[in-house]
Structure prediction request, 307 residues.
Amino acid sequence: MAFLIVVPDRLAGELTANLLALDPGLDLRTPKQLGNPDEIEFALLWNQPRGLLARLPGLKAVTSMGAGVDAILKDPELPAELPVGRLAGPRLAANMAAYLAAVVINDWKKIPEFAEYQKKKIWNQWAPEAPPTIGLLGTGTMGGKAAEVFQALDFPVCGWSRSGRGPKGVKMYSNTDGLGEIAARVDILICLLPLTGDTRGILDSRLFSHMKVGATLVNVGRGEHLAEPDLLEALSRRRPGRAILDVFATEPLPSQHPFWSHPQIFMTPHCSSITLPREAAELALESYRRVQQGEPPLGLVQRDRGY
Ligand code: NDP
Ligand code: OXD
Prediction:
């Protein structure tokens, strides 16, 4: 049983080394060294090239290298019944929570303003009175950890999920009415949803019209959650007043895109949380072993609902 790795070049070497350190006997393959494609029964994927899956008739399961599975599910060559898993480990969730805490606290504590005061030698003592209310769209593995971190700092936290289930102590909302309600209630609205048929374009003018003037939108889900022209329009009305974006419909973001130089937008290049090779190797190996034993891969996705 061979194990195919299809991941960005910058990660491939480290991931391979980590996998072989854990199990030197692994029959690892890459797209460039595919060998006999019939022997490949398991694949670890990140943005796999079109046409690859059609060449692997022996696949028993695939797994995403990260939390999102949208790039796998949209591949027209993905066999209809093939089990799809994902690697959403504790380190990935903790790194995401750290990013969210960093960007939120940076604004709340006015860190950039103090950097400016320092340059001008201004002693401007100021402290915020109350932490902002956080709204998490999606309270799964990523949203759950973010909720835990914000709660530990005593921030009020609300959540929105399909089932209405969420972490302990989080005021939960669900369905369309609930989406408007959470948007109206919070100061920082964070998208941590998977990209599915139901969530594509969910960050649109209708949602923005519910938000408080001056609130902040954070999108760390997927670029296609956001209706980009709606955001530009909404920012001009300060509803939201600011956007923090890590993911984009086109990545890398083209240099002429208006987001790059927009004064109300802060951007990072899809790196709010990146799967670390060590964690990815451990989880991928566990998933592979499960499949070898006839079990579903780790983090089995419900393909009909898209996550
Ligand atoms: P999970 O599957 O663990 O959680 C998904 C959450 O979204 C659940 O709370 C689920 O509700 C909710 N949800 C799904 N569909 C709907 C819907 N139609 N309406 C309301 N709620 C919905 O996913 P993760 O937390 O692991 O990851 C979420 C996403 O974060 C990933 O798919 C990926 O796109 C993104 N991500 C981005 C990263 C980055 O670097 N920018 C890094 C990691 C993840 P319920 O609980 O009821 O099922
Ligand atoms: C993920 C990501 O889904 O990094 O894990 O975007």
Observations:
- The chain has nine helices and twelve strands.
- The pocket of oxalic acid (ligand 2) is lined by residues 66-68, 274-275 (CB under 6 Å).
- The two ends are 27 Å apart (CA to CA).
